[in-house]
Amino acid sequence: MTEFAQAALTTGGLQGWIQQNIVPLILLGIAIILLWIGGRGDNAGVARRSIGLLIGLVALGIAVSGQGPAVGQFLANLIVG
Membrane spanning segments where (predicted)? Predict the structure, then answer.
């Protein structure tokens, strides 16, 4: 009788595909929108949105790298010493 070894199911392939394809497309879209808003002369609006974008990119970087617990521990140490 033939036995088949079932490979463990993981989300590594999907996660890699999202990081390599979806994230750059989202960043490109955001850059185009910011350039469009800046072209209309709303530089203050671009600055406000850029700060939000940077915060979002930091959160995305922490989530993708898997360093969330280490960052949380660091921030907790800043508060409690």
Answer: 22-39, 51-76
